[in-house]
User: Fold these one by one.
Assistant:
Number 1:
Amino acid sequence: AISCAGGVKREALFEQLQLKSNPQVFLCGEMLDWDAPTGGYLLTACFATGRAAGEGVHQFLSN
């Protein structure tokens, strides 16, 4: 797999990958604007941002 540029810019997100313009939306993986080389980096980044977004959702719902 090869990632492509495009997606939501980092400046549009809070630290928990929560959309500033719609705080009930959390983004991860290919929804974010980033590039990654092949060789497992893409999947690792998708898993890592998915976990971070999931933790953000948990924190959001706990408040």
Number 2:
Amino acid sequence: MIDIYYINLDKSIERKEHIESQLKDVECNVHRFPATNGHMLDISQFDKYNSTKSKKYRKRELNKGQLGCFSSHYNLWQKCIEINKPILIIEDDIIIHTPVMNNFIESYKKGDLENYECIRLFNNRRRSVTYKQEKKLFGYYLVRYNKGLMGTQGYYITPRGASKLITESKEWFLPVDIYMDSFWINKVIPYGTLPACVSTQDEFESDIGYEQKNKRSLSHSLKREFYSLIQNFRRISFNIFNR
């Protein structure tokens, strides 16, 4: 049976109850994974954080919540490597679509997912995302996206995929979802399920919190656009040469 880890802050009792009530109907071993509360730490305690690069490429720093989120997922990648088997990672504010999730887990049991290092389980809310069908499995399709889905609400990860994510994250300067979406850097191709196994829950406010978008100077905006242009070129090139 596959292990599923849900990320949960110690203070977030309501979220804990919300996710555990849903997991009762999912065929898995359930583990609560204590989230890193970035707001309780000093920025200097995140030794992998590179504020210079963050300001250079994003024109703003990661806030404590974003660093805590990165740390939580990073620690679970390490856990995946440590136990040396695939795991499911979910956040505690999602809605689980139980039939699809159990179909996905059944595919895992049958060995249908052995060639895939990371599979997004959540619904796409991003515009201009396209996909191609990889294979039809019982109750859902496995697809490959042309770009990431900008989220970490839930995903399947193997030790090989986790190792790749860790190898290329020696320095943190992007939010963890943007880093995971940068598959031309980490070489972890963005697969997903249709329909989704989980979806976002709008009832809960973010436990992370995002910084206010400060007004940027023209030069900063141009530098950011240039960086985005380069990354888009790298993404398109990767997709062309890694079909």
